[in-house]
Specification:
By secondary structure, this protein is α+β, with helices and mostly antiparallel strands. It has helices at about 110-135, 185, 190-210, 210-220, 225-250, 260-270, 275-280, 285-300, and strands at about 15-20, 35-40, 145, 150-155, 155-160, 170, 175.
Length: about 325
Amino acid sequence: MIVGLCLGAVAVLVLGVVGIVSLNGSGSDVTNAGYQNTPTPVPSSPFELPPNNGSSTPSSEPSTSDAPSSAPSSTGPQKILKLADHPILQDPNAGLQNRVCNLPPWVSTQDGAEAFFTAASKCLDAAWGPFLQAYNLPFTSPALHFPTGPSFETECGTIQVGIATAAYYCENNLYVPFKGLQTDQYGNNPGVYLALFAHEYGHHVQEVAGIMDAAWQKIYAAGQNSPDGLDMSRRKELQAQCFSGMFLGAHVDQGGTVTRDMYNKAWNDQETRGDNTSHSHDHGTNAHYAQWWRAGARSNRIADCNTFAAPASDVS
Protein backbone atom coordinates (compact mmCIF):
# COMPACT_ATOMS: atom_id res chain seq x y z
CA MET A 1 0.00 0.00 0.00
CA ILE A 2 1.42 2.39 1.19
CA VAL A 3 6.47 13.42 -1.60
CA GLY A 4 7.46 16.13 -4.26
CA LEU A 5 8.87 19.57 -3.75
CA CYS A 6 10.58 22.14 -5.96
CA LEU A 7 14.22 22.43 -4.99
CA GLY A 8 15.54 25.73 -6.25
CA ALA A 9 15.72 25.77 -10.01
CA VAL A 10 16.29 22.05 -10.40
CA ALA A 11 13.70 19.53 -11.48
CA VAL A 12 11.26 18.22 -8.91
CA LEU A 13 12.10 14.88 -7.34
CA VAL A 14 9.05 12.87 -6.45
CA LEU A 15 8.07 10.08 -4.14
CA GLY A 16 5.65 8.11 -6.25
CA VAL A 17 3.92 5.06 -4.90
CA VAL A 18 4.36 1.43 -5.74
CA GLY A 19 2.48 -1.37 -3.97
CA ILE A 20 4.58 -4.38 -3.06
CA VAL A 21 2.54 -7.47 -2.18
CA SER A 22 3.73 -10.57 -0.41
CA LEU A 23 2.00 -13.78 -1.45
CA ASN A 24 3.40 -15.81 1.45
CA GLY A 25 0.58 -18.03 2.56
CA SER A 26 -3.03 -17.71 1.49
CA GLY A 27 -4.22 -15.06 3.93
CA SER A 28 -5.96 -12.12 2.32
CA ASP A 29 -4.87 -9.58 4.93
CA VAL A 30 -1.21 -9.38 3.98
CA THR A 31 -0.67 -5.87 2.75
CA ASN A 32 2.22 -3.51 2.46
CA ALA A 33 3.54 -0.69 0.34
CA GLY A 34 6.43 1.63 -0.19
CA TYR A 35 6.92 4.99 -1.84
CA GLN A 36 9.26 5.10 -4.79
CA ASN A 37 11.24 8.22 -5.58
CA THR A 38 11.34 8.90 -9.30
CA PRO A 39 12.36 12.12 -11.09
CA THR A 40 9.48 13.79 -12.88
CA PRO A 41 9.05 17.05 -14.78
CA VAL A 42 7.67 20.06 -12.98
CA PRO A 43 3.84 19.80 -13.07
CA SER A 44 2.32 21.91 -15.81
CA SER A 45 -0.72 22.82 -13.76
CA PRO A 46 -0.58 26.11 -11.82
CA PHE A 47 0.31 26.08 -8.15
CA GLU A 48 -3.03 25.75 -6.43
CA LEU A 49 -3.87 26.60 -2.84
CA PRO A 50 -6.64 24.59 -1.19
CA PRO A 51 -9.89 26.15 -0.07
CA ASN A 52 -9.83 27.40 3.50
CA ASN A 53 -12.70 25.23 4.68
CA GLY A 54 -10.93 21.91 5.11
CA SER A 55 -11.90 21.68 8.74
CA SER A 56 -14.09 24.67 9.42
CA THR A 57 -17.15 22.59 10.31
CA PRO A 58 -16.75 19.94 13.00
CA SER A 59 -17.57 16.49 11.69
CA SER A 60 -19.82 14.06 13.45
CA GLU A 61 -18.61 10.70 14.62
CA PRO A 62 -21.31 8.01 14.52
CA SER A 63 -22.98 7.44 17.84
CA THR A 64 -22.29 4.08 19.40
CA SER A 65 -26.00 3.38 19.72
CA ASP A 66 -26.61 3.95 16.01
CA ALA A 67 -23.52 2.24 14.68
CA PRO A 68 -24.07 -1.17 13.10
CA SER A 69 -22.60 -4.21 14.76
CA SER A 70 -20.56 -6.68 12.75
CA ALA A 71 -21.41 -9.62 15.02
CA PRO A 72 -23.43 -10.48 18.12
CA SER A 73 -22.15 -8.64 21.16
CA SER A 74 -21.13 -11.91 22.81
CA THR A 75 -18.39 -12.39 20.23
CA GLY A 76 -16.89 -8.93 20.65
CA PRO A 77 -15.91 -6.51 17.89
CA GLN A 78 -15.32 -8.13 14.49
CA LYS A 79 -14.10 -6.96 11.11
CA ILE A 80 -16.73 -6.44 8.44
CA LEU A 81 -15.53 -7.77 5.10
CA LYS A 82 -17.31 -5.38 2.78
CA LEU A 83 -16.27 -2.75 0.24
CA ALA A 84 -18.65 -0.14 -1.23
CA ASP A 85 -21.39 -1.17 1.20
CA HIS A 86 -19.17 -1.14 4.28
CA PRO A 87 -21.04 0.47 7.20
CA ILE A 88 -18.39 3.13 7.85
CA LEU A 89 -18.89 4.50 4.33
CA GLN A 90 -22.67 4.95 4.46
CA ASP A 91 -23.31 8.02 6.66
CA PRO A 92 -22.87 11.20 4.57
CA ASN A 93 -22.26 13.25 7.73
CA ALA A 94 -19.70 11.04 9.43
CA GLY A 95 -16.11 12.23 9.61
CA LEU A 96 -13.22 12.70 11.98
CA GLN A 97 -13.74 15.10 14.84
CA ASN A 98 -11.71 18.29 14.68
CA ARG A 99 -8.92 17.81 17.18
CA VAL A 100 -5.71 19.42 18.33
CA CYS A 101 -2.61 17.52 17.24
CA ASN A 102 0.73 18.59 18.65
CA LEU A 103 3.83 17.32 16.88
CA PRO A 104 7.46 18.07 17.64
CA PRO A 105 9.30 20.22 15.10
CA TRP A 106 10.60 18.22 12.16
CA VAL A 107 14.30 17.39 12.49
CA SER A 108 15.92 15.45 9.66
CA THR A 109 17.62 12.85 11.83
CA GLN A 110 16.76 9.31 12.84
CA ASP A 111 15.78 10.44 16.34
CA GLY A 112 13.89 13.45 15.02
CA ALA A 113 11.86 11.34 12.60
CA GLU A 114 11.06 8.78 15.29
CA ALA A 115 9.79 11.50 17.62
CA PHE A 116 7.69 13.10 14.86
CA PHE A 117 6.04 9.89 13.64
CA THR A 118 5.49 8.53 17.14
CA ALA A 119 3.58 11.70 18.03
CA ALA A 120 1.72 11.58 14.70
CA SER A 121 0.68 7.99 15.38
CA LYS A 122 -0.87 9.05 18.69
CA CYS A 123 -2.86 11.76 16.91
CA LEU A 124 -4.01 9.26 14.30
CA ASP A 125 -5.02 6.79 17.01
CA ALA A 126 -7.02 9.50 18.76
CA ALA A 127 -8.75 10.40 15.49
CA TRP A 128 -9.51 6.99 14.03
CA GLY A 129 -9.84 4.86 17.17
CA PRO A 130 -13.13 6.31 18.49
CA PHE A 131 -14.54 6.48 14.96
CA LEU A 132 -13.93 2.78 14.28
CA GLN A 133 -14.92 1.64 17.76
CA ALA A 134 -18.29 3.38 17.32
CA TYR A 135 -18.98 0.82 14.60
CA ASN A 136 -17.96 -2.01 16.94
CA LEU A 137 -14.81 -2.65 14.94
CA PRO A 138 -11.78 -4.18 16.68
CA PHE A 139 -9.49 -1.16 16.77
CA THR A 140 -5.88 -1.58 17.82
CA SER A 141 -2.97 0.78 17.23
CA PRO A 142 -0.41 -0.32 14.66
CA ALA A 143 3.03 -1.20 15.98
CA LEU A 144 5.64 1.33 14.85
CA HIS A 145 9.09 0.33 13.63
CA PHE A 146 11.99 2.52 12.56
CA PRO A 147 14.46 0.25 10.75
CA THR A 148 18.04 1.52 10.52
CA GLY A 149 19.75 -1.25 8.57
CA PRO A 150 19.91 -1.94 4.84
CA SER A 151 16.89 -4.25 5.15
CA PHE A 152 14.28 -5.31 7.68
CA GLU A 153 12.11 -8.37 8.32
CA THR A 154 8.31 -8.31 8.23
CA GLU A 155 5.56 -10.88 8.06
CA CYS A 156 5.43 -9.96 4.39
CA GLY A 157 9.07 -10.85 3.83
CA THR A 158 12.44 -9.13 3.83
CA ILE A 159 12.24 -5.51 2.72
CA GLN A 160 15.23 -3.71 1.27
CA VAL A 161 15.65 -0.11 2.39
CA GLY A 162 16.17 2.39 -0.41
CA ILE A 163 14.47 5.14 -2.32
CA ALA A 164 11.56 2.76 -2.96
CA THR A 165 10.78 2.35 0.73
CA ALA A 166 9.78 5.54 2.49
CA ALA A 167 7.07 3.81 4.52
CA TYR A 168 5.73 0.27 4.65
CA TYR A 169 2.62 -1.32 6.13
CA CYS A 170 2.17 -5.02 6.79
CA GLU A 171 -0.14 -6.90 9.15
CA ASN A 172 -0.78 -4.23 11.79
CA ASN A 173 2.83 -3.03 11.62
CA LEU A 174 3.92 0.32 10.21
CA TYR A 175 7.58 0.71 9.21
CA VAL A 176 9.32 4.01 8.54
CA PRO A 177 13.00 3.58 7.60
CA PHE A 178 14.56 7.01 7.89
CA LYS A 179 16.97 6.38 5.03
CA GLY A 180 14.02 5.87 2.69
CA LEU A 181 12.56 9.32 3.35
CA GLN A 182 15.24 11.14 1.31
CA THR A 183 15.23 14.06 3.69
CA ASP A 184 18.19 15.55 1.86
CA GLN A 185 15.81 16.17 -1.05
CA TYR A 186 12.60 17.03 0.80
CA GLY A 187 14.06 18.94 3.71
CA ASN A 188 12.01 20.58 6.42
CA ASN A 189 8.51 19.89 5.10
CA PRO A 190 6.58 18.14 7.87
CA GLY A 191 3.25 18.43 6.05
CA VAL A 192 4.54 16.20 3.27
CA TYR A 193 5.88 13.61 5.72
CA LEU A 194 2.67 13.72 7.74
CA ALA A 195 0.51 13.09 4.65
CA LEU A 196 2.77 10.16 3.70
CA PHE A 197 2.44 8.68 7.19
CA ALA A 198 -1.33 9.27 7.30
CA HIS A 199 -1.67 7.42 3.97
CA GLU A 200 0.06 4.35 5.41
CA TYR A 201 -2.06 4.65 8.55
CA GLY A 202 -5.06 4.75 6.21
CA HIS A 203 -4.20 1.20 5.23
CA HIS A 204 -4.38 0.29 8.92
CA VAL A 205 -7.87 1.79 9.05
CA GLN A 206 -8.80 -0.43 6.11
CA GLU A 207 -7.23 -3.42 7.86
CA VAL A 208 -9.11 -2.90 11.13
CA ALA A 209 -12.40 -2.29 9.33
CA GLY A 210 -12.16 -5.40 7.15
CA ILE A 211 -11.99 -3.44 3.90
CA MET A 212 -8.44 -4.60 3.29
CA ASP A 213 -9.32 -8.28 3.58
CA ALA A 214 -12.31 -7.86 1.29
CA ALA A 215 -10.20 -6.01 -1.30
CA TRP A 216 -7.46 -8.65 -1.29
CA GLN A 217 -10.01 -11.41 -1.72
CA LYS A 218 -11.08 -9.68 -4.95
CA ILE A 219 -7.49 -9.08 -6.05
CA TYR A 220 -6.42 -12.68 -5.44
CA ALA A 221 -9.51 -14.00 -7.22
CA ALA A 222 -8.95 -11.80 -10.28
CA GLY A 223 -5.15 -11.99 -10.33
CA GLN A 224 -2.92 -9.18 -9.14
CA ASN A 225 -1.88 -8.03 -12.60
CA SER A 226 -5.24 -8.54 -14.28
CA PRO A 227 -7.33 -5.48 -15.21
CA ASP A 228 -9.80 -6.24 -12.41
CA GLY A 229 -7.02 -6.89 -9.90
CA LEU A 230 -5.28 -3.62 -10.73
CA ASP A 231 -8.58 -1.74 -10.59
CA MET A 232 -9.20 -3.07 -7.07
CA SER A 233 -5.65 -2.16 -6.03
CA ARG A 234 -6.15 1.41 -7.24
CA ARG A 235 -9.42 1.73 -5.33
CA LYS A 236 -7.69 0.53 -2.17
CA GLU A 237 -4.77 2.94 -2.56
CA LEU A 238 -6.92 5.92 -3.49
CA GLN A 239 -9.08 5.37 -0.44
CA ALA A 240 -5.96 5.49 1.75
CA GLN A 241 -5.19 8.80 0.05
CA CYS A 242 -8.64 10.11 0.94
CA PHE A 243 -8.24 8.95 4.55
CA SER A 244 -4.92 10.82 4.72
CA GLY A 245 -6.60 13.98 3.47
CA MET A 246 -9.38 13.58 6.03
CA PHE A 247 -6.87 13.47 8.86
CA LEU A 248 -5.06 16.63 7.83
CA GLY A 249 -8.32 18.41 7.08
CA ALA A 250 -9.66 17.58 10.55
CA HIS A 251 -6.54 18.79 12.37
CA VAL A 252 -5.40 21.90 10.51
CA ASP A 253 -6.05 25.24 12.21
CA GLN A 254 -7.24 23.62 15.43
CA GLY A 255 -4.68 25.25 17.67
CA GLY A 256 -2.07 22.53 17.47
CA THR A 257 1.03 22.29 15.31
CA VAL A 258 -0.70 21.12 12.11
CA THR A 259 -0.50 24.50 10.44
CA ARG A 260 -2.07 25.91 7.30
CA ASP A 261 1.38 25.94 5.69
CA MET A 262 1.79 22.21 6.35
CA TYR A 263 -1.67 21.55 4.95
CA ASN A 264 -1.08 23.66 1.84
CA LYS A 265 2.22 21.95 1.07
CA ALA A 266 0.68 18.53 1.50
CA TRP A 267 -2.24 19.60 -0.73
CA ASN A 268 0.05 20.68 -3.56
CA ASP A 269 2.40 17.72 -3.17
CA GLN A 270 -0.27 15.16 -4.04
CA GLU A 271 -0.35 15.84 -7.78
CA THR A 272 3.35 14.94 -8.09
CA ARG A 273 2.77 11.29 -7.19
CA GLY A 274 0.89 8.36 -8.67
CA ASP A 275 1.12 5.94 -11.56
CA ASN A 276 2.26 8.60 -14.03
CA THR A 277 5.35 9.08 -11.89
CA SER A 278 5.99 5.47 -10.92
CA HIS A 279 5.00 4.03 -14.34
CA SER A 280 2.78 1.46 -12.64
CA HIS A 281 -0.95 0.80 -12.84
CA ASP A 282 -1.89 -0.11 -9.28
CA HIS A 283 -2.19 3.23 -7.44
CA GLY A 284 -4.02 5.62 -9.76
CA THR A 285 -2.94 8.48 -11.98
CA ASN A 286 -1.28 11.51 -10.44
CA ALA A 287 -4.47 13.49 -11.06
CA HIS A 288 -6.61 10.93 -9.27
CA TYR A 289 -4.06 10.60 -6.48
CA ALA A 290 -4.47 14.32 -5.82
CA GLN A 291 -8.23 14.25 -6.43
CA TRP A 292 -9.00 11.70 -3.72
CA TRP A 293 -6.62 13.18 -1.14
CA ARG A 294 -8.16 16.60 -1.68
CA ALA A 295 -11.70 15.19 -1.48
CA GLY A 296 -10.99 13.91 2.01
CA ALA A 297 -9.14 17.07 3.06
CA ARG A 298 -11.85 19.39 1.72
CA SER A 299 -14.94 17.74 3.22
CA ASN A 300 -13.70 15.47 6.03
CA ARG A 301 -16.60 13.13 5.26
CA ILE A 302 -15.80 9.43 5.02
CA ALA A 303 -18.61 8.82 2.53
CA ASP A 304 -16.58 10.93 0.10
CA CYS A 305 -13.83 8.29 0.36
CA ASN A 306 -15.94 5.45 -1.05
CA THR A 307 -13.61 4.68 -3.92
CA PHE A 308 -15.20 1.24 -4.26
CA ALA A 309 -18.44 2.85 -5.42
CA ALA A 310 -16.75 5.29 -7.80
CA PRO A 311 -16.92 4.91 -11.59
CA ALA A 312 -13.87 3.40 -13.23
CA SER A 313 -13.08 6.77 -14.79
CA ASP A 314 -12.37 8.21 -11.33
CA VAL A 315 -9.97 5.47 -10.27
CA SER A 316 -7.93 4.95 -13.43
